[in-house]
């Protein structure tokens, strides 16, 4: 769309004249019809009108309103509904002038399966499997740390059912004392159930009750002269006390989150501490995207509204600042959670200590983030200088190719901006229809497919397009862009130097016979190495996934009568091709849908492939 012209100026007077006084949300669009701001209001007419009154609109709001060419409104029943809808729209569209939370991952849980000998493992996503879920944890790292502790305290198995069902001897975990090997019958069902019950008590925050049970077990073993068993209980109690001392919050028994926000230099950090059943499960730092400078209280309110949109909400939130609309926010959160939610900005005693710890962590995290941002900005400045760019580059893309002797070729495209890697914009391309091993054709196809999508408006154009390779790859990329009539993107080939050592890379530019001379050790070269290595990693990962999938499919696809659903079921039940190859005809027949003749064909496929 063309830039805004005088004829496109928004007629605010006519719009406001007919605007409703009901609650709802309003969405503001610029001259390119891009959504730049979403807001909510108890009275839409009064709220939107305030933007056009010079004595009420702030200077920043006036700058934003100068770009507005269209406003849409959506009416809701209550202001609480408007707040919820506002959060949904902000998370979906990420408007330029709103405070936006970028992280949208689901929380990880610890999952204890519903099985005769249950497994315990990390789980993320929908809770569809029968069993018990404990958490949520702030990150997979925190959940994995808890799993490691549990292995040392109560050796419940962590292997998948497909592995468990096909074991014939104990695994390494049993040898190092972290599993009691129920797969081969080295522990009774009753003893294993005791370990599972202890695990549940620990994860439910019943550490005190658990210690009391273990003390009774120790005393009973000692009275029965089973001193080795008593010593084992004693050691278990000591380890458990050490763990609980580190994670237990004095005076807390329920679920709550502690949230602290700090702002500086148009950036913000929100630190979240998770407390469940009186135990501190970990913490995580978030960096909301700010369109402008905002007060910490406003950032924290916007963060909370978006953060808990699709996540479990504890009964209480302890916050570092009093929020502008605490009552409205608690109403929305309570409706979401189906239970009362309290927001506490002022706390004392042990809670005040934890809140101060969260604030300190937020300050340190933001300082580190700003230092990295300044360092990255310096690398972009160096890159501009080394490549003699007329303006500072804003967006970089890099392509790489990975294959094995020309098979299963995958191209990767990674994206960097002035904040670092933009992983949501990464893309992979499965390359088809070329001669195996022709990297030039692969680069050409990948670049063509990527920039066709650019022309369709799926993503912005990069300022610099890096290609991992030499002159041939650069020419292939240049040809692909010329065919699409795209001539405003700088193409730079990143070729390995004579000794193939990091730091000795040669930069190949279109139309230049010799590589570009660059300053040794320049920080811009470090940025090039970073994006090239990231493209290489992303390409190899994609190639390995494609190659592994092809191997699984090719080995089973040749069996008559074995369709994709049954192939998938076999792989799942036996844990992979190796498990299928080791299975007998009777074991194969036990799978639903696998008849005796089909089981015989599968068995012969793996045992008589040489014709003997």
TrEMBL record:
Q: What is this protein called?
A: UvrABC system protein C
Q: Where in the cell is it found?
A: Cytoplasm
Protein task:
The UvrABC repair system catalyzes the recognition and processing of DNA lesions. UvrC both incises the 5' and 3' sides of the lesion. The N-terminal half is responsible for the 3' incision and the C-terminal half is responsible for the 5' incision.
Species this protein is from:
Methylovulum psychrotolerans
The UniProt entry's sequence similarity note says: Belongs to the UvrC family.
Subunit-level organization: Interacts with UvrB in an incision complex.
Lineage here is:
Bacteria, Pseudomonadati, Pseudomonadota, Gammaproteobacteria, Methylococcales
Instruction: List where this protein forms a coiled coil.
Output: none
| InterPro entries from the UniProt entry | GIY-YIG_endonuc, GIY-YIG_endonuc_sf, GIY-YIG_UvrC_Cho, RuvA_2-like, UVR_dom, UVR_dom_sf, UvrABC_protein_C, UvrC
Coarsely, its chief localization is cytoplasm
Q: Locate the GIY-YIG domain: which residues?
A: 21-99
Keywords attached to this Swiss-Prot or TrEMBL record, sorted alphabetically, are: Cytoplasm, DNA damage, DNA excision, DNA repair, Excision nuclease, SOS response
Q: Enumerate the spans annotated as UVR domain.
A: 208-243
User: Might you name a Gene Ontology BP term for this protein?
Assistant: nucleotide-excision repair
